[in-house]
Amino acid sequence: MAVEMGLWRADGDRLSRITPTAIGLESQLETYIESDPGMLGETLLVLGPQVATAFAGFIDLLALDETACVHVIELKRDRTPRDVTAQALDYGSWVSGLGRAEIQSIFEAYKPGVALEEAFTECFNETLPEELNSAQTFTIVAASVDAATERIVRFLNEDFGVPINVVFFRHFADNGAKYLVRTWLVEHEGQQQSAATPARQTKTREAWNGSDWYVSFGEDSGTRQWSDGRKYGFVSGGGGKWFSQTLKNLPVGARVFVHIPKTGYVGVGTVTGEARRFDQLQVEVDGVDRLVKELPLSGSYAHEGDIEDVNAEWAVPVAWTHTVPRERAIWKNGMFANQNTAAKLRQKFTIEHVLEEFDIAD
To answer: I want to staple 149 with a disulfide (CB 3.0 to 4.6 A). Which of 81, 99, 144, 154 is the partner?
Structure first.
C-alpha cells in the first residue's frame, strides 16, 4: 500500500489541507540529517557524509547507533527507487567488510582530532563497545517510492529480516512556516539486526596485544581500599564467584591497568604471582615476605561466609610501574570501563591515554 502523508490546518471548525511542496527537498535532507540524525527516529553518531567506497561510489551518510551497528543512509535524489535500493545493499556489502580501524579512519577524516571513543560517549553516554560494525542497517530517504520498490523492501525486511527500510519526508509550507513530516514504510520499532559471526568478530573487535588487562578495584570503605593495594602491591576482588573468578585469569607477567569504578584509572603494573585467597597472600616488605593480612590495612577484606573459597576475597600481587591516589585518578570520556573484576584490555584509546598521563613509555 502506498504511503500518503497529509497535513491540515484547523481554523475553528474548518480544515484546510496544506499541499506538499517540491523545492529540492531531497537535496537538503542530507544536510538536515547530518546536523540532526535524530530525524530518523533514534540517536545516531554520524561517521561521515559522502563516504568513498572501494568501487568509486559514495555513501550519502554513514552512522553508528548505540549498539555500534553501522547505518548506511542513502537519499533517493534523482535515482529511481529501485536503483537506490540496490545501491544501498551494494554499499552494505562493502561496509560489512570494514574493520574497526577502517571505521575509526572514516570518522577521523570527518572529525580530525576527535577520537571516536570520545564522540561515542558524548553522544550515547556509553563506552564504545568492543564489537564495532558487527551488524548493518540500511535506510533509504525519499519523498516517495513506487509500488515495486515497496514490495522489494517489505519482502527483504518482513520475510527475511534484512534491516532495510524507507523513511519518507514531505515538505509543507503554510503562511511563512515550513514543516517536515516523517513516516516509515515498515514499522520502525524492533527491526531485526543481523548477528556477527565469529569470523566477523575478529575484524570488528580491536585486536588484543596479548599482555594488557583491565582490573576493576571496587573500593569499599568497610572491605577494600586502593590505598592498601597501592602501598603493598596487589589488586583484589571477592565476596562471590562472579567477583573473583575473572581475577584468577590474570597470568604472571600481564600488564594491568587498574580502574576505580566511577573514579578513574589509578595504576599500571605487572602481575608477579598467581591469585590467592587474601588471607594467604604474601608480599615483600623491607626485604621480608609478610602476610598482607598482618600488615596495617585500611580495609578488612572480609566477607560473609568467606570461610568458603567462593565467598572469600582473592588477591593478585603486582609490581607497580606507576600509581596515583584516587584523588588524582585519570579519566576521559570514551575510556574503557567494565563490570568484571578483570578483563582483556583491547581499547587502544584507553591504553595510550593512561600511558601518556602516567608518562610511561610503551
So the answer is: 81
